[in-house]
Amino acid sequence: MLLEIKNLEVVFPMRQGDLRVLHGIDLAVEKGEILGLVGESGSGKSVLSKAVMGLLAKPGRASGGEILFQGQDLLKADAKALRSLRGNRIAMIFQDPMATLNPVLRIDAQMLEAVQGHRKMPSAEARRLCIEALRKVGIPAPEERFLNYPHQLSGGMRQRIAIATALLNDPDLILADEATTALDVTIQAQILSEMKALCRESGTALVWVTHDLAVVSGIADRIAVMYAGRIVECGPTQEVLSRPKHPYTQGLLDSVPSAAQRGQDLRQIPGLMPSPSALPPGCAFNPRCLRAKEACRSNQPVMTQTPTGAFACFNPLSEGDRA
Amino acid sequence: MTAPLLSVRNLGRKFVQKPSAVAVAASLLTTGKRPVQKAVRAVNDISFDLGPGEALGLVGESGCGKSTVARLITGLITPDQGAITYKGETLAAMARKDRLKIQMVFQDPLGSLDPRMRLGDQIAEGVRVHNIVPAAELKDYLAGIFADCGIDPVLAQRYPHQVSGGQRQRFGIARALAMKPDLVICDEPVAALDVSIQAQVINLLARLRRERGLSYIFISHDLNVVRHLCDRVAVMYLGKLIEIGDAAEVLSDPRHPYTSALGDAAPRVTLDAQEFRAIKGEIPSPLNPPKGCFFNPRCSLATDLCRSEAPELRDLGARKVACHTPL
Known about the structure:
The complex is a heterodimer of chains A (323) and B (327).
Chain A lengths: L2 E12 L2 E13 L4 E5 L6 H9 L7 E9 L2 E2 L5 H7 L4 E4 L3 H4 L6 H10 L6 H14 L5 H4 L9 H13 L5 E5 L7 H18 L2 E6 L2 H7 L2 E6 L2 E7 H6 L4 H9 L38 H5 L5 E2 L4 E2 L7 H4 L1
Parallel strand pairs in A: 3-8, 3-9, 6-7, 7-8
Antiparallel strand pairs in A: 1-2, 1-4, 4-5, 9-10, 10-12, 11-12
Helix pairs in contact in A: 4-5, 5-7
Chain B lengths: L5 E12 L3 H11 L6 E13 L4 E5 L6 H8 L7 E6 L2 E2 L5 H4 L2 E4 L3 H4 L6 H11 L8 H11 L16 H13 L5 E5 L7 H18 L2 E5 L3 H7 L2 E6 L2 E7 H6 L4 H9 L38 H5 L5 E3 L2 E3 L6
Parallel strand pairs in B: 3-8, 3-9, 6-7, 7-8
Antiparallel strand pairs in B: 1-2, 1-4, 4-5, 9-10, 10-12, 11-12
Helix pairs in contact in B: 7-8
């Protein structure tokens, strides 16, 4: 197993006490696997990816559990060890490439630093490597773009540069946090197909964090759905999309307009995601759930294993419910 | 179609990029002439009609001019070409009171609501200033609007930052509705919202249209949403209209290669291993559009004619398409 997260808890200390934003996260990513991590804003998906990178905003901290990367617990690793992993074995792509790239440095300086910061390499060779990476992500005239400043490039180009930089050191794992959300659909389609091909080719594992089920349906092998700081369902993409067990997953699927429902009302999930400081007792989804029972309002459902995946629900959808 | 509610003819708007002082000085010193001003044709010769109670979707990538069209129709900016007529009257000549019949809902309600004013007061202000209802009825009128938009009246006492994104967008819609409009222009109203909240707002917009007979111009990059809500759809590319027709037909059987490519690029929840068929390249800079059809550098069907001559919007069955080699 490449990455194994066990019972991870993340808290943000507040004046009133610790605010828990991740509750007992268990998640595993195999070598070369593409995992779609799906959730709405506030579900904790970004906090989870930042925790793996050791980039939790202070004073947030992991208060329990383990994050094992190739057997090494990242939560116990010191700054130096993390530094040698980040950008090298684990890379991250953020939503806004303008925030990733330094606006006052040219692309060449930023990319060369990413290579030479991790291994000794003559500049000419590093330069060739960078230009090769730019070509791989479909940047036309990479030698010229290499000498540009970020503001001289379009949003799609900037995101490609961020991706090329992430690929530079042949990482074992890439975390992409809403990496195409800010882009046009046409550019998004280009980037998704390139990422998929690149990961397959190099055997890199990819965690694609997004709110958009449609995006992961095309790219991911497995899907994990998060709600209010917990993983509520995970399993192979086909399984989760065609036979969701958790009512929240089903609700997300129903919320996307499709050609068949034209002119009819969409089946909406009522209400809002609760804030981490005001979680309802029992299952966090119960106030919005049409299937909530007595047990859902008082007890926290634990993950139930199925042959292919797992879900956390007392009243899961069965075949009959979907018919 | 009966007499159109809104009719747009040959609409055009240019934005001129002013050269910086340094560029002017450099040019004067080297050539002795002022630099050439670059102009962007953000909206280029667009014509369409909108019937009463009709919903028209306006789709395209960012930078294609769809928001500029919205701003022209609401009168936030003036066209430098063509005319917009509303119920037979040109927009420029219309009285202010009649212009209230065209309202707009913006993408980012946090940007369009006043952060320092209570939400309820913001909605009430417009109603009061424009005398939409007598002062004595104001309270009941607002309560009715809030109920229609599914807003808990308690929230009216709050400030914009104190409510969720979905609730804020409901206030954005309520503010437009309070003016008793006939036509509401929605500029990416659900793009910033979470999926589950998106469905709530889409259902709200659909219901309001049914109950109040509103017309919509619905700007979005999300083809699924447009197909769901709209009767007709207009596709824009680099300031030009390239295909317009019945929404279900255009999106399921596109005739313009760009419309088709846009449909292929849109992610769908599918169970088959989906190959993202991407259009090559990016939208060209509007400062320097390609010769001939603007889409030709990215089009797999482009011929020499496409590279030299820009296609006109022509009738093709029930719809209009601007392409030399329609699918």
